[in-house]
TrEMBL record:
Signal peptide start and end residues: none
EC number: 3.4.11.19
Full protein name: D-aminopeptidase
Recorded coiled-coil stretches: none
Native species: Nocardioides panaciterrulae
Amino acid sequence: MPRARELGIVIGAMPTGPTNSVLDVPGVGLGHTTVHRDEPAPPEGRGVARTGVSVLVLAEDAYRRPVPAGGAVLNGAGECTGFLTAGEWGSAETPVYLTSTMQLGRVYDAACEIALEAHPEVADDVVIPVVAECDDSHLNDCRRMQVTGDDVRAAHAAALASRGSAEPPEQGAVGAGTGMSCFGFKGGIGTASRTVGDHTVAVLLLTNFGVREELVVAGTPVGRQLPPVVSGPAKPAGSCIGLVVTDAPVDGAACARLARRVGLGLARSGSVAHHGSGEIFLGFGTGLRLDRDGTPDRTALGGRALDPLFAGVVEAAEEAVLDSMFTSPTTVGRDGHTSESLHSPGVLALLRR
């Protein structure tokens, strides 16, 4: 399904990268495993699954040469393993894994196994994979552990294979985004990028937040102008995981500041960060690398030199919200619960007006 720009909806004035995604940052990869099935409840089957796992590879050698990292929390009703160590050490050593709330532990186990297979010395040094979640229980039967270790491995392999691709990655109802809802519509995976001089900054979102009347599209209060949709129980305001990655030489402190700006992009789309929502953000920099003791290999950008990167994050985050929704089809999940696609005649007519 089309992205926002393909529908004539342009966010901001900064130029995008070639794929307008996280793949525009050299060495970065994004892969998904989508789990979508309709079976009877156990013991006859495995139930209704609308879930999956997505993996963001930051750098293939991140364990031996950690990347600077830092995080920010807008509202903390969620979980992200590795968040505390990123804040303490200012670095990350593993890919970032995204999945649904109840399957975080299962994905964490597989992430540890992947790290051990690639670097046996992890057993003597201990690594804490970065695994973050949003709740997809509105569409997915989370009483069943639907994601397997093989699903995690497949998403990781797909992420490695995607590095350097000239094609935009899959977005919307794929991977971890399969069962997510956003502003009362179908949400999921969204990504966008901006170029800043010789560098690129990109945002990847897992969107699962907001209520219908709050939605703003490119400054238009769409949610307040659309009639309500009655399609079973309403999806409560959920969460958003936001990941920023740039090839600019930034340290852990700057990564945290970049991550914080994701919240401004969400606000432009209408988010107010509800009580039960977990807006958790992480930033990563691949243009400056660290040794195992945390010593940087070059001088980091700082001060006002970060302002263009901040602007890029805000624009890319706002656009990534829209892409996560416009690229998602209407999805029916467990018990007939439905999340309507934002790519609908009513919404498009309103935007044209």
